[in-house]
């Protein structure tokens, strides 16, 4: 009996020591709070939305995850293959997809992430099907007028003069991403994207800075502060933080309407904040080398709230300058090309509709 009690005490002591060691693995500020300062690479093949056929399945088997990762490796190989120099030109009037010529420019990652040792089917976990909730009727009607990232009806003419659309009137009629001003999907709520997935965090007792590689955008979270007055608005909103144990809870409001979602291939990019809404993020330490990022979005334009989670592993890679604006020669080319097509359209006597 005495030996049994001794063994139990030893096990309890070892368990307490292991828990303390685990806690000691978490970097902390002088005030004792977890210190999230560091660089994080959040790229992952885990999609933002779950594939519909997976239903409410939260996790993938290792075999299913391996298949996704193998498909990605093949996609990279196919994308890097040399183009045939004797291939025929596209048919006249055919849509030419404006994509980079190979896969070298993209870096979405090579693996799916795990939480609690399980591969996830999506970043979104709420609603339970892992997909964005439906838009309200009013939101569906208003979003038909949103600017598009890619206009699919590109037939080599100034078609917009007849339709009344204004996609290429000036830089101001283009979405913020094309103008190299702001990339909403990379900024809040934060999720994996096709490239530029590095995040740099710098923390003090009163602030958390989140530097986002895509568009070189910086969010500043004021800890234990109050929200700015409603007239103050930012593309990424106004963020304040508070501690709940070792978790930093960040609440963001006061978004600018101009940060509205863009239309990509005729479909709205999902989960982008705008206007009267609130985003709640939670940063929790997993260990000294990673944190758990969770978010919940309350948006009056959707029929219900939505949210999700993903791990942020630390990296030794550096976040270099994102000189998008300085190298944005293609936007000038679009505007010049549009003016030329408009001249040809008018010279041919084709109809012109005034923009509304």
Write the layout of secondary structure elements.
Layout: H1 2-24, E1 38-41, E2 59-60, H2 62-79, E3 114-115, E4 118-120, E5 124-126, H3 137-142, H4 160-163, H5 184-187, E6 198-203, E7 207-212, E8 217-223, E9 238-244, E10 247-253, E11 263-264, E12 267-268, E13 277-287, E14 290-299, E15 306-313, H6 329-347
Parallel strand pairs: 8-9
Antiparallel strand pairs: 1-6, 2-4, 3-4, 5-15, 6-7, 7-8, 9-10, 10-13, 11-12, 13-14, 14-15
Describe the protein in words.
- This protein has 356 residues and is an alpha+beta fold.
- The chain has a domain at 40-65 and 98-136 and 184-313.
- Helices cover 21% and strands 22% of the residues.
- The chain has six helices and 15 strands.
- Strands 1-6-7-8-9-10-13-14-15-5 form a ten-stranded mixed beta sheet, with no helix packed on it.
- The protein is globular, with a radius of gyration of 24 Å.
- It starts with a helix and ends in a 9-residue tail after the last helix.
List keywords for this structure.
356 residues, alpha+beta, 3-stranded antiparallel β-sheet, 6 helices, 21% helix, globular
Low-pLDDT residue intervals, each spanning 5 or more residues:
1-22, 261-271
- Average pLDDT across residues? 85
Overall outline: globular
Please tell me how large the radius of gyration is: 24 Å
Q: Biggest sheet, strands in spatial order? A: 1-6-7-8-9-10-13-14-15-5
- How large is the share of residues in beta strands? 15-25%
State the total count of DSSP E strands: 15
| Number of continuous helical runs | 6
Major sheet attributes: 10 strands, mixed
Multimeric state? single chain
Helical residue percent band: 10-25%
The ordered H/E elements are HEEHEEEHHHEEEEEEEEEEH
C-alpha end-to-end distance: 88 Å
The computed structural class is alpha+beta
